[in-house]
Every structure is written in structure tokens, then in C-alpha cells.
């Protein structure tokens, strides 16, 4: 039998403690989103914001628990659900227990189903899905599960706020709805039709169509149909290159009314739209940028610009995601037990530095928060986007939007 000397035992113990401490210092978060292809700029900008958020909100503040730091690891999913599942398994195999994703509800639907199945089969390597931008309402309704938390408002919550504004505008009699042909685009169309019908029965929907996602090179045919329809306003859930292409084409083909959007700022779009979209493009979002929500938010934005002079914080919810995750880990007393962390996230109330209170609704894991409707402009802009003079200025705010909205979620807890 091998004899261990006292010195040897101490050395072995030191190695174990050292290894444990090294492991404890690093909480890894897998970012699974497009880092190549037509939506690469959107994904890359999101990754930069996550990297900055963990430093600004956690690492630079001494970490969590006993000084554990956070690290974001990027995985390129090429906006493909199939590739996303491959990258998810790679992340799990690397011991990563926190997954963030936001670009494409089609991807989010694939991930949430795969994570639910993995966690049921592998209780020793469970993971949490922190959805920061995929807003298909089904994800917190019939497809909800304990492992999924959404930090953005879903498409119905956003449309509820947008249609309040549209219905109150007496100059808008006809509306054209256009979006990407997948679950999110369909959800936007369904919500717009339903809510406008309820709030303004006399308003006419003069167009309602979907186009292939990420494949249209020339939006001129779509733009000409919008103009020919006689629409007074356009509603679109397009994002990334599809938003830029559609928006520019609609404006260039002579449409003069407001374009109500979900994702029409940052990632190069604001600079590309420039003066042509001034007072034309309107955006529903969370987190106040102009005017900024707090001095701490101002510090965060300036800190980000020091790291990325040509970038911008156009997804303040990313910082809310990291801030709430850090608080949940502190409350759970561990980053390894994701059930405890998830339980701490449920019903959490959190004061966002971007302004307003956040509440993680326990029955469906949908974050409830203030929603802001802003306009593309170069007036009264403290923080412009894309190194341009233009940004998004808040025009109106709906506090704790859709707090009591119904959900069909039947949450099953472990």
C-alpha cells in the first residue's frame, strides 16, 4: 500500500484546493448566435455587449460568491437551428451550464426543446437557457419549461404597446404588415391583426405578407407593393440585414409614413438609415438610452465605447440578463446547482440601471418591464449609434407593460 507522507498529503491537498479555486473563479456562459453570414454583425455586436456586461457588472465588482468571475464563450450557430443544437452539445461537453441566445425564435424553439430533454435525461449536467431576444410568444406559453427564462418582452407584449400608439393616431387609416417567414414573423402578423382589430376596428389592413428570412437581396418588389397599397403606416418585426434592406427600400420607393419596428437600430443600421429615416422609423424597446436611464447606465455606455469605439449598446436587456443571473447565483449560494439558480430567478424583482423595475413572472418565466417607443432622430441624442449623429429618442413609455397578460404555460418544476 502506498504511503502518503504528511508533506505529500499537504501538497496533494494544496493541489486540490488550487484546482477547486481555479474552477470556482470562472462561470462560463455559452453565447450561441450568428457570428458569420448575413446576420454576423447583429450576433457579433451582441457578443461584445455580453462580454462587456460580465466585466462591468460582475468581474470589475469583485465577482460573485467567493470571487467567481464570469466568462462568455462565443459559438457560431450560423442562424441555423441544426447548427445551434450541435453547438449546444459542444458547450455542454465543455461543462458550460448557462446558455444565452436571442437571434431567431426558430433557433430558440429548437434550443428550449433540446435543453428540456437533456435536463430530464442528465440531472447531473443540467443547463439553463437565458433567452435575451427571441420573442415568439409560444416560448413562454405552450412551449414553456422550467429551464427557459426570457429577458426580452415577447412579440405580443411589444405589439400591445405599438398598437396603442398606432390606434391613437387619427392619421393612420391603413396599415401594411410585412415580416420574415418563420415563427416570429408569423407571431408579429397575428398579434398586429388581432390587436388592431380590437383597438381600431375601422382600420384597414391593406397588406400582410412574409418573405424568406436572410435570403432577399432586393426588397424593391415588396416596397413597391407597400407604396401601391396606399398604406399610412408599416409594421415589421424584421431584424438584421432584412430590417435594413426592407426599411431602406420602402423609404427609397417613396413611402412617407411611419415604419413601426422591433429591431431597427444599431449594428450598422442606424448609420445606414441616416437622415432618410429621421422621424420615420419608430422602435419598441426596453431600456432608456436617450435620455439615459441612470448615471450607472451612462458609465456602462461610456465604458463600452472605450472598448468598442465604433459599437453601441442597442440591447440593454443583455445587461439585465447578466445582472439578474449574478443576483440569482448569490441568492442560491452556488453557480453549479442550476435548479437553485433557476428557483432564485423566479419571482425576482430587479432594479435596472436603464430605468424601471423588472419582474420575472414565475408562472411562465417572462420578464415584465417598462416598454419604450422611440424615434430615429439626431435631435437630443446623447448616445448616437454606429458612430453617426443619429440614435433613438424615447417618445413614450408603458410602465410594466402587460403585467397581467394571460399565459397558457403549465410550468412543470423538477
Automatic annotation (TrEMBL):
Pfam families, A to Z: Peripla_BP_6 (PF13458)
Highest taxon listed in the record's lineage: Bacteria
The UniProt record lists the keyword DNA damage: no
Keyword Nucleus assigned: no
Signal peptide: 1-24
Domain annotation Leucine-binding protein: ranges: 27-373
Protein keywords: Amino-acid transport, Signal, Transport
Residue ranges that the Swiss-Prot or TrEMBL entry lists as coiled coil: none
InterPro entries given in the database record: BCAA_transport, Leu-bd, Peripla_BP_I
GO BP terms, alphabetized: amino acid transport
Record-stated family: Belongs to the leucine-binding protein family.
The name this protein goes by in its record: Branched-chain amino acid transport system substrate-binding protein
Organism this protein belongs to: Sulfitobacter noctilucicola
Amino acid at each position: 500500500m502506498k504511503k502518503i507522507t504528511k508533506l505529500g498529503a499537504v501538497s496533494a491537498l494544496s493541489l486540490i484546493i488550487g484546482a477547486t479555486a481555479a474552477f470556482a473563479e470562472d462561470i462560463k456562459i455559452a453565447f450561441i448566435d450568428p457570428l458569420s453570414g448575413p446576420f454576423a454583425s447583429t450576433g457579433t455586436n451582441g457578443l461584445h455587449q455580453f462580454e462587456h456586461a460580465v466585466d462591468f457588472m460582475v468581474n470589475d465588482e469583485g465577482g460573485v460568491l467567493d470571487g467567481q468571475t464570469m466568462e462568455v464563450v462565443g459559438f457560431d450557430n450560423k442562424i441555423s437551428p441544426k447548427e445551434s443544437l450541435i453547438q449546444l452539445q459542444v458547450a455542454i461537453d465543455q461543462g458550460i451550464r448557462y446558455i444565452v441566445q436571442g437571434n431567431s425564435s426558430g433557433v430558440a424553439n429548437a434550443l428550449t426543446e433540446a435543453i428540456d430533454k437533456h435536463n430530464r435525461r442528465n440531472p447531473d449536467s443540467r443547463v439553463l437557457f437565458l433567452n435575451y431576444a427571441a420573442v415568439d410568444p409560444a416560448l413562454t406559453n405552450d412551449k414553456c419549461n422550467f429551464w427557459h427564462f426570457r429577458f426580452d418582452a415577447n412579440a405580443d407584449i411589444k405589439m400591445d404597446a405599438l398598437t396603442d400608439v398606432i390606434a391613437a393616431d387619427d392619421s393612420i387609416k391603413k396599415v401594411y404588415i410585412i415580416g420574415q417567414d418563420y415563427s416570429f414573423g408569423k407571431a408579429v402578423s397575428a398579434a398586429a391583426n388581432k390587436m388592431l382589430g380590437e383597438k381600431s376596428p375601422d382600420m384597414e389592413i391593406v397588406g400582410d405578407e412574409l418573405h424568406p428570412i436572410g435570403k432577399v437581396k432586393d426588397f424593391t418588389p415588396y416596397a413597391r407593393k407597400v407604396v401601391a397599397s396606399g398604406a399610412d403606416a408599416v409594421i415589421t418585426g424584421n431584424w438584421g440585414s432584412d430590417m435594413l434592406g426592407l426599411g431602406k427600400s420602402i423609404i427609397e420607393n417613396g413611402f412617407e409614413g411611419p415604419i413601426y419596428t422591433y429591431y431597427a437600430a444599431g449594428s450598422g443600421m442606424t448609420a445606414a438609415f441616416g437622415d432618410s429615416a429621421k422621424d420615420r422609423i419608430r422602435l419598441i424597446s426596453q431600456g432608456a438610452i436617450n435620455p439615459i436611464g441612470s448615471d450607472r447606465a451612462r458609465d456602462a455606455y461610456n465604458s463600452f465605447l472605450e472598448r468598442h469605439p465604433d459599437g453601441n449598446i442597442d440591447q440593454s436587456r443583455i445587461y439585465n440578463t447578466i445582472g439578474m443571473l449574478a443576483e440569482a447565483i448569490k441568492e442560491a449560494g452556488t453557480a453549479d446547482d442550476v435548479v437553485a439558480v433557476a428557483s432564485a430567478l423566479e419571482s425576482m424583482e430587479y432594479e435596472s440601471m436603464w430605468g424601471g423595475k423588472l419582474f420575472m413572472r414565475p408562472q411562465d418565466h417572462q420578464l415584465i418591464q417598462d416598454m419604450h417607443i422611440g424615434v430615429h432622430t439626431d435631435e437630443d441624442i446623447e448616445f448616437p449609434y454606429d458612430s453617426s449623429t443619429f440614435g433613438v429618442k424615447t417618445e413614450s413609455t408603458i410602465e410594466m407593460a402587460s403585467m397581467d397578460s394571460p399565459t397558457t404555460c403549465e410550468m412543470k418544476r423538477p
